[in-house]
């Protein structure tokens, strides 16, 4: 494996000059720079990124911790974060926590060892003090952790839009399928809005929570099967994600319920799949790209020692399609 000394010898320069080229420090003529690059290419030399980051005290890597990249919402979020981080000269290191405390702790330790410059948290299972003890720039996504800056959409507004739409369409008994409400998430505000509005209008309602593993797709169908078996007169469903709404469509077919004639369904997020389901899914759109762009902007500002806004909340939008 070639070393920096081999590169210096082939380029006809000193090791110090090669180091300055690699770390972009001090004046180097363009001709010398090109000689070093050519020598590196011919020797297939790969610089040691960890050593370089220690030297520069900056890795230009941002850690991203999410429950699972397999979920369409977090897959799209990660895609946008990577795009905007790259525009700012950063790479990302993605960690799937699966909401497992031990796994998240191991990933955080790994991110520290790799000298990441900051962390975007789309998942959290540890105590607040443990995040503060990291002494890293941190931005949280759709959750409040201590006094770290956070990015979110207006979840209460989303729950209000979804519930009011179902009521305006004539629904008399509405089911709400949501994540586990014991988890301290801003998304719980969707459920709060649902309950308050159905109570205000005197609409019969049923709220069903998933278990603690809120991103386990296998449980959705069984939950919905049980729901329709016990409440055959449900004529409206507000699902807290588009994926749960998609399972509701599937179970409606099993129970011979025609959508939207017999039952109306509203999802949440507006992932790309929502508009290609049959029928196309009515949903609440979170401005995911704008939220991801701001998450990157806020973490980079923290890295650079700049002031940032603590609360960053985006409005949501009702996307009415064929399921209502």
From TrEMBL:
InterPro entries: HTH_LacI, LacI/GalR-like_sensor, Lambda_DNA-bd_dom_sf, Peripla_BP_I
A GO molecular-function descriptor: DNA binding
Presence of keyword Transcription: yes
Keywords recorded for this protein, A-Z: DNA-binding, Repressor, Transcription, Transcription regulation
Limits of the HTH lacI-type domain: 2-56
PANTHER family linked: LACI-RELATED TRANSCRIPTIONAL REPRESSOR, RIBOSE OPERON REPRESSOR
Protein known as: LacI family DNA-binding transcriptional regulator
């Amino acid at each position: 494996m070639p070393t920096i000394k081999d590169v210096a010898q082939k380029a006809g320069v000193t090791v110090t000059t090669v180091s300055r080229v690699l770390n972009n420090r001090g004046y180097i003529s363009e001709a010398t720079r090109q000689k070093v690059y050519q020598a590196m290419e011919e020797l297939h030399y790969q610089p040691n990124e960890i050593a370089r980051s220690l030297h520069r005290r900056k890795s230009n890597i941002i850690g991203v911790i999410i429950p699972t990249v397999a979920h369409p919402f977090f897959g799209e979020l990660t895609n946008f974060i990577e795009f905007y981080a790259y525009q700012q000269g950063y790479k990302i290191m993605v960690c799937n926590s699966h909401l497992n405390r031990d796994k998240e702790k191991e990933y955080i330790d790994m991110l520290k060892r790799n000298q990441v410059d900051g962390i975007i948290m789309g998942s959290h299972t540890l105590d607040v003090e443990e995040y503060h003890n990291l002494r890293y720039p941190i931005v949280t996504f759709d959750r409040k952790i201590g006094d770290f800056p956070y990015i979110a959409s207006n979840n209460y507004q989303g729950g209000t839009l979804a519930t009011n739409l179902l009521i305006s369409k004539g629904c008399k008994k509405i089911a709400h399928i949501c994540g586990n409400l014991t988890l301290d998430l801003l998304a719980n505000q969707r459920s709060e809005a649902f309950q308050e509005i159905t109570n205000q209008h005197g609409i019969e309602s049923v709220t069903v929570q998933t278990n603690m593993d809120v991103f386990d797709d296998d449980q959705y169908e069984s939950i919905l099967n049980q729901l329709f078996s016990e409440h055959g007169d449900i004529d409206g469903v507000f699902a807290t994600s588009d994926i749960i709404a998609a399972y509701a469509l599937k179970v409606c077919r099993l129970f011979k319920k025609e959508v939207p004639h017999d039952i109306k369904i509203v999802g949440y997020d507006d992932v790309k799949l929502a508009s290609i389901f049959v029928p196309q899914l009515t949903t609440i759109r979170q401005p995911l790209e704008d939220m991801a762009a701001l998450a990157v902007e806020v973490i980079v500002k923290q890295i650079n020692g700049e002031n940032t806004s603590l609360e960053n909340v985006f409005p949501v939008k009702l996307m009415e399609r064929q399921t209502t």
